[in-house]
Amino acid sequence: MVRSAAFWIVLLIGCGSPYEPLDLPADPAAWGVPVGVQSAERDGVQLEVWYPATDATADEAAEGVDLADLLTDEFFERVGDVDVPVIPQQAVRDAPLRVTEEPFPVVVFSHGFGGWRAQSVDHAAHLASRGYVVVAADHPGRRFQDLLPCLFDPPLEGCNVFSEEDPGPAGIWAAAGWVGSAEFLRGAVDVDTMALSGHSAGGGSISHVANLDDRFDAVLVLAATPGVTTDVPTLTIEGSCDGIIPPDEVLVGAAAVPNGTVVELDRAGHLAFTDICAADVGGIAEDVLVGRDDVNEAFLGQLMTLATDGCEGWAPSPALEGCGDGFRPFDETAPPIRHYATVFFDDVLKGEGPGVEADVYDLATLVEP
Question: How far apart are the first and last CA of the chain?
Answer without folding.
Answer: 44
